[in-house]
Amino acid sequence: MPTLATTGAGGVLGLGLAEALKNFPCFQRSTSLGSRSQPSFWENSWNPMDLLVPEEPQRWLQSQAPQLLLHAGAMTRLDDCEANPKACHRTNLEATRELCAAALEIGTSLLFVSTDQVFDGRAETYSEDSTPSPIHNYGRSKAEAEQIVLEAGGVVARLPLLLGGEATPQRKGADTALRQSMQAGQTIKLFEDEFRAPLPASSAAQGLLLLLEAMKSPNPPRGVFHFSGNEPVSRLQLGQMVQTAHHLSATLLPTQAASWNGPPRPLRLVLTHERATEELSWKAPNLRQYLSADSTP
Q1: What is the third-level CATH fold of 4-162+199-230+270-284?
Q2: Is-above-0.70 flag for pTM?
Q3: What gap in Å lies between CA 25 and CA 29, rounded to an integer?
Q4: 20 to 30 A from 210, CA-CA: which of 21, 238, 278, 282?
């Protein structure tokens, strides 16, 4: 049986997880993935599982019977969650409820990956103790799922905007998406009034694995942890930093998220991460140094 089972490793976080696992021997060879298809970069064991299918998540977890579960699978695109609220509710909330029930039944400790999007963006920063205040379907589904996990004795880890490589053509880090658009000669409109604290997926994955290690201890942590970058930047500033790091010539046009006609967007999502720093000795990397290193041939 695997020590660790995980869901949702087919995207950018999964790329970071596959990289970070190399530094965690206790998990590297005993990690199983449940997803609809096996990611090309995933070298550990894989078993098919679809969060959209009722009762399939719990059957999958019962068959794996791991010591730990990292539940990162979710429907994350804001537009998709607004256009398909039933699928969003099923994937993000009901599947989590089923996994919690199965985890309690078989004695699996659960770490749930959530998001900074559970907040409304009106505060300067958000700590682990801040009360969720979601303003769209995605945020609401994740906030409700958080509560289910916490009531079941699980742990919640909130992540910010992730940076990293390309898992699939549709799933790539924010910096990679910007760089590829610039290299294609596109004119890019970027919000100058929406601020995030982006984090490399590899750093987020390292934090999650440190937390999972702590959950194996006799005194396991409880509650909520944040893993986030230290530097709040607007989407426009991030684009400018990517442009500088990769020495690209591109046209970046400032635009306003406040006047965007899509789903409501929180304008400032900056997570603080005191617990991760103090209890796990986790540190967020310098954003500019990360982008510069990523641009090195």
Answers
A1: Rossmann fold (3.40.50)
A2: yes
A3: 7
A4: 238
